[in-house]
């Protein structure tokens, strides 16, 4: 039976590429998005993939959104926790709102999204959870104490949950992208971005589809023995 995949933040950037790659591979794909209605409408028009709006930083909205998808579309077999934001700033200038927004959206969301999806996966004895982290959760990044902390937390979440779910046929993995050609990276000041690209051995930004293809592999039929792992895709910028 066709498996259903939910991609959070799945209408733009890396998430859009993930949604498209999964659809192309034959999965029944549903995207979640948080705010940009125009982009979501254009995405659905272009791809035929339905998009459901809620904030992944809102626990009740996640539970309700997932219940709605399971009722209208079908049980969620694959969950890609991709949605994320930045509120960059040096620590001495960062306020508590910028801290909380990033921790809630990029880390607490994993709990809010995965818990309701997990119940059905456990009952059916199959599931794939892929969490999108970042090189900056592995290596740290100046101006991103909030983002680096949240993304580092993603790795701990993955490794703990992978142990809990392994016997239930559910794998949980992290992909840690480096600097990818998206709106998020385009927002980095030009001079700073130039200095970052200079440190990427491959000599360029990554493309969103280069992340999507790895997600596809982790969701596919040959990846059942991969769990609790982290795949770094960063052009060699950080090797671990
Ligand atoms: N590498 C090297 N130098 C950096 C730097 C970096 N990543 N970030 C800041 N600096 C330097 C600046 O060039 C500047 O140096 P000078 O004083 O010599 O010119 C100094 O640090 C202070 O920086 P700013 O003048 O830019 O200070 P600011 O307070 O105006 O802005 C900032 C600080 C908002 C953090 C800004 O520097 C910035 O946006 N930096 C980029 C942070 C970053 O990498 N974000 C990643 C976003 S993409 C993402 O998160 C996706 C992913 O997972 C990879």
Compact summary:
By secondary structure, the chain is of the alpha/beta class.
Which word captures the global form?
globular
Mean pLDDT level? 98
How many β-strand runs?
A: 7
The ligands found in this model are: acetoacetyl-coenzyme A
CATH topology: Rossmann fold
Structural account:
By secondary structure, this protein is of the alpha/beta class. It has one domain (4-233): NAD(P)-binding Rossmann-like Domain (Rossmann fold), CATH 3.40.50. It has nine helices and seven strands, in the order E-H-E-H-E-H-E-H-E-H-H-E-H-H-H-E. The chain binds acetoacetyl-coenzyme A.
Topology overview:
Blueprint: E1 4-7, H1 13-24, E2 28-33, H2 37-47, E3 51-53, H3 59-72, E4 78-81, H4 96-124, E5 127-132, H5 135-139, H6 145-165, E6 170-177, H7 183-186, H8 190-197, H9 208-219, E7 230-233
Parallel strand pairs: 1-2, 1-4, 2-3, 4-5, 5-6, 6-7
The protein binds acetoacetyl-coenzyme A.
What attributes characterize this protein structure?
Rossmann fold; binds acetoacetyl-coenzyme A; alpha/beta; 240 residues; seven-stranded parallel sheet; 15% strand; globular
């Amino acid at each position: 039976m066709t498996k259903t995949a939910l991609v959070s933040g799945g209408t733009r950037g890396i998430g859009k590429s993930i949604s498209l790659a999964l659809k192309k591979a034959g999965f029944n794909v549903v995207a979640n998005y948080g705010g940009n209605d125009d982009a979501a409408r254009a995405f659905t028009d272009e791809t035929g993939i339905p998009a459901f709006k809620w904030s992944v930083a809102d626990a009740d909205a996640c539970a309700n959104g997932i219940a709605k998808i399971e009722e209208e579309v079908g049980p969620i077999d694959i969950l890609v926790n991709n949605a994320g934001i930045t509120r960059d700033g040096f620590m001495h200038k960062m306020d508590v709102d910028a801290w909380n927004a990033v921790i809630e959206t990029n880390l607490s969301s994993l709990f809010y999204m995965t818990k309701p999806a997990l119940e059905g996966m456990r009952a059916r004895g199959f599931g794939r959870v892929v969490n999108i982290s970042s090189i900056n959760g592995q290596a740290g990044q100046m101006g991103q104490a909030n983002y680096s902390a949240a993304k580092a937390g993603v790795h701990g979440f993955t490794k703990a949950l992978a142990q809990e779910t392994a016997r239930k046929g559910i794998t949980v993995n992290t992909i840690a992208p480096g600097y990818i050609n998206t709106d998020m990276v385009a927002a980095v000041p030009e001079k700073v971005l130039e200095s970052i690209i200079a440190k990427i051995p491959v000599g360029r930004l990554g493309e969103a589809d280069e992340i999507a293809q790895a997600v596809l592999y982790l969701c596919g039929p040959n990846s059942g023995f991969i769990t609790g792992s982290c795949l770094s895709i960063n052009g060699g910028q950080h090797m671990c």
